[in-house]
Design goal:
Blueprint: E1 3-7, E2 10-12, E3 18-25, E4 34-39, E5 46-51, E6 57-59, E7 67-72, E8 77-82, E9 91-99, E10 102-105, E11 109-113
Parallel strand pairs: 2-11
Antiparallel strand pairs: 1-3, 3-8, 4-5, 4-9, 5-6, 7-8, 9-10, 9-11
Length: 115
Amino acid sequence: QVQLVESGGGLVRPGGSLRLSCAASGIIFRRYGMNWFRQAPGNQRELVAHIDSGGSTNYAGSVKGRFTISRDNAKRIVYLQMNSLKPEDTAVYYCNTDVSGRGYWGQGTQVTVSS
């Protein structure tokens, strides 16, 4: 079955960086677009970044220029490089993909930006 496993979250000071990873299994990874979402307490889950099967990317306005999504098809991993982190980036970050109309989610990884 499809499995997505995130890693790389943690506590970081404002202005710092983190790189999240999402390892995928159970799918022909190179065929599918991949997404990073985040959800802060009391907020709805929001799309942060998307990368399609060809490597084209899209970002939420709030992270554009600071975050970079990338993928390694050989390793079946999608990354989210997060730079210039702000307290408002604090959230649980989730990896997601859609396979034949069904959405799959990882368990999430906590990112906390605080001094």
